[in-house]
Design a protein that fits this description.
By secondary structure, the protein is of the alpha/beta class. It is built from 13 helices and 23 strands. Helix 6 links the parallel strand 13 and strand 14. The protein is elongated, with a radius of gyration of 31 Å.
Length: 493
């Protein structure tokens, strides 16, 4: 494809046109639709057409091409269909930020403007950080600033000290961590920083291996980015005030608490840092929903974070019902300190029930391979002792087995299949050794389901989706199904 610079002279490829008033990098909106916003990528002639044209890369990708036309490339668009050429009269660059505020507060008391603490500038045409600095200086009481959906320039020269800003929202602004490193010098009191939807894939401190500064930062929101390596997140371990870290909808495959070797590597070129620092010492909330985590070692590693009590793991392969997910009670039992799981509070009663159920679900496997249980279930022995749960074998005393009633569970069976018809639920006392296959045979008799291929689900009160019971040889005890549980009977589709 022919490049514009090789086909047009320098005058024609200018980035500024005195007659149109538009410059490359400027944010504009379509004259007839202020919601259609883009960035000027080219100003000048287009071969085969008269007059001046503005090449725009539209934010919502509703253009016509990728910045090239008739074999000549004029600019690089973000996608194949996000660019288009527009006549100057069909575009507007709006009003300046300060003019807009003057219009907004014209006629109102000066006290209202002086006392402004929150400013939402979502979806405007801002790009120059100097404008942001100017407005913050004009509004000395401003504490929270939202710049979502403004494509901010990567050049940050001349940015003043924004000493009063506590909350800064930079979602979908195109910012990368290199700019964050520059920005932090102007934000000495920042407490919340939101960086969602910026395609950030790496955390790149400027002079050191680990991120330093941000002494007041309590919440860092990096949801909906492209981080795949947990090592990038470990670079944040020196942020001593950090309490909440939001990482939903990235591409993380594993989690681990940083060990000594990892810390030594990261601390090797950090100045004025104690080697005995405890990583993520104040982190209490870690949101990891919608990633690609699929191993139990990652779950267990969360116990190493000193103050972590609020965890989100939903929409990860490890909790996917279609992939033999880990049920809620197992997560609670494995996570010793968690008080909120997937947005739902873990009560003292639920924790006790979950831990007992977890231990009992493993008892039948204990005598087959005790070393494997110890390795794969690190809290098993601790919980078994804490809840005073005896082995299956120890329940056989000199007087023979315990009464039958101690091995029975009260299970409610509910039919939910469309062709099964309405049938009242049944509550039955069943031995803990009842297998899924045996239970299906019983339900065929209880509900007269001859000829219907059953699918069974275990319904947990606090779980968003029921757990499919696929293994017909697994017993109620193996599955951790406890007293007063509900099992749903559906039909194969």
């Amino acid at each position: 494809m022919q490049n514009l610079n090789s086909s047009l002279n320098a005058e024609k490829s200018s980035t500024f046109d005195s007659t149109s008033g538009f410059i490359v990098g400027q944010r504009v909106h379509f004259a007839g639709d202020h919601r259609r916003i883009g960035t000027v990528k080219y100003v000048g002639p287009v071969e085969g057409y008269s007059g001046t044209w503005i090449g725009v890369d539209w934010d919502n990708a509703d253009g016509k091409h990728d910045g090239s036309i008739n074999g000549i490339r004029y600019f690089e668009a973000e996608s194949e269909k996000s660019g288009s050429f527009v006549r100057p009269q069909n575009l507007s660059f709006g009003v300046s930020l300060l003019d807009g505020l003057e219009l907004r507060y014209r006629g109102s008391s000066t006290k209202e403007e002086e006392d402004l603490k929150e400013l939402d500038l979502t979806g405007n045409l801002l790009s120059d950080w100097k404008d942001i600095g100017n407005i913050c200086e004009e509004l000395p009481t401003l504490r929270a600033l939202n710049l979502t959906n403004n494509k901010m320039a990567s050049v940050m020269t001349g940015l003043p000290l924004l000493k009063n800003i506590r909350i800064l929202v930079l979602n979908n602004t195109g910012i990368q961590w290199a700019e964050v490193e520059i920005l932090k010098l102007s934000l000495p009191m920042i407490e919340e920083l939101h960086l969602m939807c910026n395609k950030i894939s790496a955390i790149t401190p400027k002079y050191t291996s680990a991120v330093q500064g941000f002494s007041s930062l309590k919440l860092l929101n990096m949801e909906d980015n492209c981080i795949s390596d947990w090592v990038e997140i470990v670079k944040l371990f020196l942020l001593e005030s950090l309490e909440q870290l939001h990482l939903n909808k990235n591409s993380l495959t594993r989690i681990c608490y940083p060990d000594e070797d990892m810390l030594c590597d990261l601390l090797s070129n950090c100045e004025s840092t104690e080697k005995s620092i405890k990583p993520f010492n104040n982190l209490r909330c870690l949101l990891l929903g919608g990633n690609k985590i699929e191993d139990l070692a990652s779950v267990d590693s969360l116990n190493s974070f000193p103050k972590l009590t609020d965890v989100r793991l939903s929409e990860n392969p490890i909790v996917d019902p279609g992939r033999g997910c880990i049920p809620r009670f197992v997560l609670i039992a494995r996570l010793a300190k968690v008080e909120i799981l997937n947005g739902s509070e873990v009560s003292a009663r639920e924790r006790k029930d979950s831990e007992i159920r977890y231990v009992r679900s493993l008892l039948s496997k204990l005598h087959h391979n005790p070393e494997e249980i110890k390795h794969q279930h690190p809290r098993f022995a601790e919980l078994k002792v804490y809840h005073k749960i005896e082995d299956e074998r120890s329940s056989m005393g000199v007087s023979g087995p315990q009464k039958m009633g101690t091995g029975l569970l009260s299970i409610t069976l509910k039919c939910v299949g469309a062709s099964i018809g309405e049938k009242p639920p049944l509550t039955k006392k069943l031995p803990t050794t009842t297998t899924v296959g045996k239970l299906k045979n019983l339900c065929e008799s209880f509900f007269k389901l001859k000829g219907i291929k059953q699918k069974m689900y275990f319904h947990e009160e606090r779980s968003p989706l029921p757990m499919l019971l696929e293994d017909e040889m697994a017993s109620l005890m193996d599955l951790g199904i406890g007293n007063d549980s509900v099992i749903l009977i559906d039909e194969e589709s």
